[in-house]
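Work Package 4 report. The design task specified in the project plan requires that, given a folded chain encoded as structure tokens, an amino acid be chosen for each position. We show below one input record used in the internal validation round.
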């Protein structure tokens, strides 16, 4: 139950994509998918009371592959883990714009806080 509450808090704290509405859409699904992809690596690194903010710039290739342009975070290990989890990862991009630069900010609060 505590993990579900944390997931909903993290989902609510997600930043917005550039020029995209904040409604249920393929882009909203993309935000959720990316959060799920990077959450284990970030949480494995964070201590019990730590938090992290990650800003990710990426695009989706015509082959439905994520290509990371940049990852910004104060923690170098978090940057590395996010980059490793996302760069060249396959994703269902059938309803998404290809070669469009997406910007996403995710704030993580450790579940053991």
């Amino acid at each position: 139950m505590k993990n579900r509450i944390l997931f909903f808090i993290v989902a609510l704290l997600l930043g917005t994509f550039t020029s995209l509405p904040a409604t249920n859409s393929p882009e909203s699904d993309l935000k959720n998918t990316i959060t799920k992809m990077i959450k284990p690596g970030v949480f494995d690194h964070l201590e019990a009371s730590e938090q992290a903010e990650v800003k990710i710039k990426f695009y989706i290739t015509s082959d439905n592959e994520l290509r990371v342009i940049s990852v910004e975070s104060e923690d170098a290990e978090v940057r590395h883990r996010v980059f490793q989890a996302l760069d060249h990862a396959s994703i269902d991009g059938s309803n998404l714009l290809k070669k469009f630069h997406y910007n996403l900010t995710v704030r993580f609060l450790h579940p053991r806080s």
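Residues 2-109 form a domain with the Fusion Protein Consisting Of Minor Coat Protein, Glycine Rich Linker, Tola, And A His Tag; Chain: A; Domain 2 fold (CATH 3.30.1150). Validation will be extended to a larger panel in the next phase.
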